[in-house]
Amino acid sequence: MADNLLTVRNLVVEYGTGQHAFRAVDDVSLTVPRGGTLAIVGESGCGKSTIAKALVRLIKPTSGSVDLDGTDLATLSERELRPQRHRVQMVFQDPFGSLDPHLTAHQIVAEPIAVRGEKSKKVQRDKAAALIDRVGLPSSALSRKPPEFSGGQRQRIGIARALASEPELLVCDEATSALDVSVQAQVLDLLAELQRENGLTYLFISHNLGVVRAISQDCVVMRAGKIVEAGRTQDLLSRPHEEYTQRLRRSALEPGLMTGIKPRHLIRHIAASRAAESEKSA
Ligand code: ADP
Ligand code: MG
């Protein structure tokens, strides 16, 4: 039997109540193997971010279960949830809106370390510095604030902040979508390295099939709140069965129809940045 870190069963999320309730996620079930990456793809508005928010309990699911290694996060009370929260962390799409512009990178990354119970300011500072270094930023970044960083640098800070909570599952919601192609490839590479080093498990949400192909082994395709296809990413993207998946694939290949970049361009960038890395380390 596969060793799944996350098992979502029959997840339903509704916005509003009664007659005005809108079912954004409708009976979604999925599993993410420990140390692996599952991608969720689908066009805008199909419910991807709603799933992400339900997993980190920014919203409470209407029904269904979210089993993280034996604990159902969907049904816990706020009080019961508190010691569990660090286990699932999110990296958001918007590198501009998701970090407090008034705090330094050090404060942003040290805060979850303090929340985890680390009282020593020195240890907090050292751990934050190690994380900033690990995500590829210079130590001078520690004293700077988000408005002074580029989009890619901000996403690195967002990743460092997420890691500071020592999560088991990282939910990346369009985490590279706002970035230029080459920066996108660098951040994807960083995420892949961090996964190899720390055995992290990823749920990777994207409307971009090139990104999905680069980062995930398994993939589910969503449409209007439901999963319409699921399987190995390679198989799904090379031989999609559903008309909808074919359409997603076609629109990803035709610029303009879908925001984002052509998969072959992204793959070329990733290959180039890997080659540059291995030259550096040779
Ligand atoms: P995606 O991330 O795939 O673009 P979302 O999960 O953001 O989709 O949204 C799914 C659906 O739920 C959309 O129709 C959206 O308009 C709706 N929705 C999202 N957030 C809210 C909200 N806070 N209140 C009401 N409807 C919402
Ligand atoms: Mg979204």
Q: What does this protein look like?
A:
The protein is α/β, with parallel strands linked by helices. It contains ten helices and ten strands. The strands form two sheets. The protein has a six-stranded mixed beta sheet with strand order 6-7-8-3-9-10, sandwiched between helices. Strands 2-1-4-5 form a four-stranded antiparallel beta sheet, with helices on one face. The chain is globular, with a radius of gyration of 19 Å. It binds adenosine-5'-diphosphate and magnesium ion. Residues 15, 22, 24, 42, 44-50 line the site of adenosine-5'-diphosphate. Magnesium ion binds at residues 48-49, 174.
Which keywords apply here?
alpha/beta; binds adenosine-5'-diphosphate; about 280 residues; 10 helices; Rossmann fold; binds magnesium ion
| Main sheet overview | 6 strands, mixed
Which H/E pattern describes the elements?
Answer: EEEHEEHEHHHEHEHEEHHH
Average pLDDT level: 89
User: Unreliable runs, pLDDT <50, ≥5 residues?
Assistant: 255-262
Structural class: alpha/beta
Rg for CA atoms: 19 Å
Distinct compounds present: adenosine-5'-diphosphate, magnesium ion
Strand count: 10
The rough form would be described as globular
- Provide the spatial order of strands within the biggest beta sheet: 6-7-8-3-9-10
Helix content: 25-40%
Task: Give me the CATH fold name of the largest domain.
Answer: Rossmann fold
* Number of spatially distinct domains: 2
CATH architecture of the largest domain: 3-Layer(aba) Sandwich
How many helices does DSSP assign?
10
Rounded to the nearest angstrom, the distance between the terminal CA atoms is: 40 Å
CATH class designation of the largest domain = Alpha Beta
CATH homology group of the largest domain:
P-loop containing nucleotide triphosphate hydrolases
Strand percent estimate: 15-25%
